[in-house]
Design a protein that fits this description.
Order of helices and strands of chain B: EEHHHHHHHH
Mean pLDDT of chain B: 84
Shape of chain A: elongated
Largest sheet of chain A: 3 strands, antiparallel
Radius of gyration of chain B: 24 Å
Number of helices of chain B: 8
Low-confidence stretches of chain A: none
Oligomer: heterodimer
Largest interface: A-B, 23 and 29 residues
Strand content of chain A: 15-25%
Strand order of the largest sheet of chain A: 1-2-3
Order of helices and strands of chain A: HEEEHHHH
Shape of chain B: globular
Mean pLDDT of chain A: 89
Helix content of chain A: 40-55%
Strand order of the largest sheet of chain B: 1-2
Number of strands of chain B: 2
Structural class of chain B: mainly alpha
Number of strands of chain A: 3
Number of helices of chain A: 5
Structural class of chain A: alpha+beta
Largest sheet of chain B: 2 strands, antiparallel
Distance between the termini of chain A: 47 Å
């Protein structure tokens, strides 16, 4: 099966590969997997507490070219968005952009899951810091 | 053809149990390959693999099967259906023997393998393993709640960590230095994951027993059936990660 040019581009030059400090209160981490193929994807976001804008995003994916391209594209898209707008990204948007064939749709699902999981983790941290005012504001 | 079976759902389109032989008009079972009266090969039908081997149709397809009997039947049918046998037969019989030989090979390959057999049964039971994850994502998107991952988070963590180690080993190899401690970590991980594969297999077999018991109990509830079915789905999902890990570890270790 031939990959689209966009997939190949993201695969050869993946954007935003790396790690953010998991313990930071501004960082949300999502670790998700696709049982269909055994791929795993970790996506992290760093959110500005004032503006709720995602200032940085990093990913690490172990999987096929489409999974890597989907997560690379996802980090590109969510950077600069506020968290609510990032939640509006659907897997079908990724499918369209990368021209993924039907057998690779689960890769885009994985990327959407990763965005949601990272934002969910970040929100959980915010709720925790709000309820523990002593520890809050420590950056 | 009085009975056509939809291979994806296993639902019989017509419920009649027998056909008439095209050649001698004797009654022939819907899944019989030859007429019991005149011995002529019968037309190809879209029956599922269990029915092809006469191992029971919906809803009583058992997962525990006698593998040596299956193999014997495979060889017996291979000989009887072989296209060479039909070299002098009519064009339609030649075609049926060809089609049935191909069905026979697919059916045997699927049923003899424990994982393929289970996946195939789940598919016949309406579980689309390919779509469960995206279905859950759609549900999470609509409800705004966190999607429930189909495998335990600890397993994902472990899979991720091991992949990091593997990558380190590969990079070190490329740089021409072999770190013995990574190699020994990987050896240990290999053993651990191979053990998990073995455990998954024996767990699967207990679910086969549960499944066979449920489907053979008259009046058993649909809920009980679904419960066992979903246990098998969960197990196969977990197993796919472990299988990849074993594969990648072996590759990294150069086996």
């Amino acid at each position: 099966m031939a990959y689209s040019d966009k997939v190949v581009d993201h695969y050869n030059n993946p954007r935003n590969v790396g790690t953010l400090d998991k313990s930071s209160s501004e960082v949300g981490t999502g670790l998700v997997g696709a049982p269909e193929c055994g791929d795993v994807m970790r996506l992290q976001i760093k959110v500005n507490p004032e503006t709720q804008v995602i200032e940085d995003a990093k990913f690490k994916t172990f999987g096929c070219g489409s999974a890597i391209a989907s997560s690379s594209l996802a980090t590109e898209w969510i950077k600069g968005k506020n968290v609510e707008d990032a939640l509006a990204i659907k897997n079908t948007d990724i499918v369209k952009e990368l021209a993924l064939p039907p057998v690779k749709i689960h890769c885009s699902v994985l990327a959407e899951d990763a965005i949601r999981a990272a934002i969910g983790d970040w929100k959980k941290k915010q709720a925790a810091t709000e309820s523990a005012p002593v520890a809050a504001q420590a950056k | 053809m009085a009975t056509e079976t939809n291979i994806r759902t296993g639902n019989s389109v017509a419920t009649e149990g027998a056909n008439l032989c095209w050649s001698c008009n004797a009654a022939v079972a819907a899944n019989a390959h030859f007429c019991p009266n005149c011995g002529k090969v019968q037309p190809t039908t879209q029956i599922d693999y269990f029915e092809f081997f006469n191992l029971g149709g919906a809803p009583t397809r058992k997962l525990n099967i006698d593998l040596s009997a299956l193999e014997r039947e495979f060889y017996r049918l291979s000989r009887k259906l072989h296209p060479d046998v039909f070299a002098r037969a009519s064009a339609k019989e030649q075609l049926w023997s060809l089609e049935k030989s191909s069905q026979l090979n697919d059916a045997y390959r699927t049923l003899k393998d424990p994982i393929a057999r289970t996946q195939y049964l789940l598919e016949l039971e309406g579980v689309k393993l390919e779509e469960q994850s995206s279905d859950a994502t759609h549900a999470a998107r609509t409800s705004g709640e966190q999607k429930k991952q189909v495998v335990p988070p600890e397993l994902l963590e472990e899979v991720f960590e091991l992949n990091m180690q593997l990558q380190e080993l590969r990079m070190n190899k490329e740089m021409g230095e072999d770190d013995p401690s990574i190699a020994s970590d990987l050896q240990q991980a290999k053993h651990r994951f191979e053990k998990m594969m073995t455990e998954a297999m024996s767990e699967l077999k207990t679910y086969w027993d549960e499944w066979d018991a449920v489907i053979c109990t008259p009046g058993s509830s649909e809920a009980g059936r679904i419960k066992v079915r979903d246990k098998m789905v969960g197990l196969l999902n977990r197993r796919s990660y472990i299988r990849n890990l074993v594969r990648d570890v072996n590759e990294a270790l150069g086996n």
